[in-house]
């Protein structure tokens, strides 16, 4: 896939036509090869782009317009169907090139395992990296039914890579007892059920550090985002998630990249989930790309 060539199909609203002139790169990771419940998140990036046409370009939350940020929609990485390891290698290489070119990578999934490829590229660039993780699930398994490459494992993998005390999870409400016990034993931060208030407490401790933010759409309650692979009752509202994005934007942390994953449009004929994701992407661009 070329970096200097615009996506041949739909692009996210107000994307800049030139890669070289852009500060940030929006890209898709259409993979759902390892999901344990419902597939379909590989169609998420395309639909998020398509529904963005219904967005206003102005954010009343941040008092910024998309035309103030030059970001390039590079389309989807052409991942090989059914091959998770090669897909992860391609994602790592792709994001590495974006970082080498001095640009902010903003990814759209795809299942959450895609973030593991991104994490590896980010850590090579930023050895003192911290991760902010918003999700319904811990994603701290070593494997799922014997398979180490699973969407239930990326946070355990990155915790082992960068050190568990550098990983901060919020909104967690599901996971095996052993996952919660492991996190407690190694000093990894997990905020159960809530996001905004515990995030406010943590952000000052990360001031000045490079931070990567990964958001699984299922951190939202299914009432707000039914279109996802593993729905889980008891989540936060879309209002709280937007407020959390804005809290990060107002903080002193250095956001160096981000992703939004697990949007599966087929399970939401109302398109509420895709439209919510599209608005979240707009706020991430306007809030985190300086």
Automatic annotation (TrEMBL):
Mn(2+) binds at residues 112, 135, 137, 139, 216, 218. It holds the Pfam family Arginase. The keyword Oxidoreductase does not apply. Its EC number is 3.5.3.11. InterPro entries: Agmatinase-rel (IPR005925), Ureohydrolase (IPR006035), Ureohydrolase_dom_sf (IPR023696), Ureohydrolase_Mn_BS (IPR020855). Pathway: Amine and polyamine biosynthesis; putrescine biosynthesis via agmatine pathway; putrescine from agmatine: step 1/1. Keywords: Hydrolase, Manganese, Metal-binding, Polyamine biosynthesis, Putrescine biosynthesis, Spermidine biosynthesis. One of its GO terms (molecular function) is agmatinase activity. Its cofactor is Mn(2+). It comes from the Bacteria. Binds 2 manganese ions per subunit. CDD domains: Agmatinase-like_2. NCBIfam families: agmatinase (TIGR01230). PANTHER family: ARGINASE/AGMATINASE (PTHR11358), GUANIDINO ACID HYDROLASE, MITOCHONDRIAL (PTHR11358:SF26). This is Agmatinase. The gene is speB.
């Amino acid at each position: 896939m070329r970096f200097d060539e615009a996506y041949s199909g739909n692009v996210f609203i107000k994307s800049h036509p030139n890669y070289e002139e852009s500060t940030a790169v929006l890209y898709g990771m259409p993979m759902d090869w390892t999901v344990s419940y419902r597939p379909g998140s590989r169609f998420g990036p395309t639909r998020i782009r398509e529904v963005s046409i219904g967005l206003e370009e102005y954010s009343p939350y941040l008092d910024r317009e998309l035309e103030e940020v030059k970001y390039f929609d590079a389309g989807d990485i052409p991942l090989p169907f059914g091959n998770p390891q090669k897909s992860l290698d391609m994602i790592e290489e792709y994001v590495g090139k974006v970082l080498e070119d001095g640009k902010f990578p903003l990814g759209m999934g795809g299942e959450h395992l895609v973030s593991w490829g991104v994490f590896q590229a980010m850590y090579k660039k930023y050895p003192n990296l911290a991760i902010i993780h918003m999700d319904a699930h811990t994603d701290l398994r070593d494997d799922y039914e014997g398979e180490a490459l699973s969407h239930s494992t990326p946070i355990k993998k990155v915790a082992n890579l960068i050190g568990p005390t550098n990983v901060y999870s919020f909104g967690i409400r599901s996971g095996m007892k052993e996952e919660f016990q492991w996190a407690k034993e190694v000093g990894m931060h997990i905020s159960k059920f809530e996001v905004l208030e515990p995030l406010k407490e943590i952000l000052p401790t990360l001031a000045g550090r490079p931070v990567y933010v990964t958001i699984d759409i299922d951190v939202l309650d299914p009432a707000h985002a039914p279109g996802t692979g593993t729905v889980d009752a008891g989540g936060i509202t879309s209002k709280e998630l937007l407020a959390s994005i804005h809290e990060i934007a107002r903080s002193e942390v250095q956001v160096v990249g981000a992703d939004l994953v697990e949007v599966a449009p087929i399970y939401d004929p109302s398109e509420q989930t895709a439209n919510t994701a599209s608005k979240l992407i707009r706020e991430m661009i306007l809030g985190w790309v300086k």
